[in-house]
Here is the input.
Amino acid sequence: MNRRQLIKNLGLGAGVFVVGPSALSLLQSCKNEPDYDWQPVYLSASNGLALKQVLDTILPATDTPGASDLNIAQFIDSYMDTVAEPERAKEFKRSADAFAQAFEKEFEKSQDDGAKEDYDQILKKYLKATPADQEKYMKRNTETQDAQNQEPDVEMDSDAGAYAYLNNVRDMAIWAWKNSEEVGENVMWYDPIPGEYIPCGPVSELGGGKAMSL
Here is the structure.
């Protein structure tokens, strides 16, 4: 089975990530050695570079693998290219462009020239936004989508688009990280041959307090 078939077999809907053999196979094919010469197949080169920067900020390498160690940027780009419904993929690309605009507005430079500190700052702005700001961004997104239904070429609001983009990327990244083979077998509680059934027991004694790998 080739990579495209594996991705299609995921059958994931918008905002929903289902763990299954095909999903794990896709993550397996994306991990191996980090691909430093990666060229996106769906996003632009600039947005692909920014995606890697965003992911490395959300999931940095510590004593556990980071996003780049598992090639999560490649996974998200491939997912949008092959699995996502056309409208969802289009919205993802628009929101990636909106993030680029928000970055330039915030720092007066291209996202290509952004330093780690810049990405730290802009992620805090949107992912740790106040409830009032979150409501404002979501309202703008709704207004933009309504306008795009009338005129598809209407430009997405940069702040609202960046907020939507970063939340989407974070959700996909965490799902991919938790369900990768590397993390599932070497970071989480992994038991390929479960033993006795224990309906109730102290967490500290079950898998060393770790969440169980599916």
Q: What stands out?
A: Residues 58 and 170 are 7 Å apart (CA to CA). Confidence is low (pLDDT under 50) at residues 1-20.
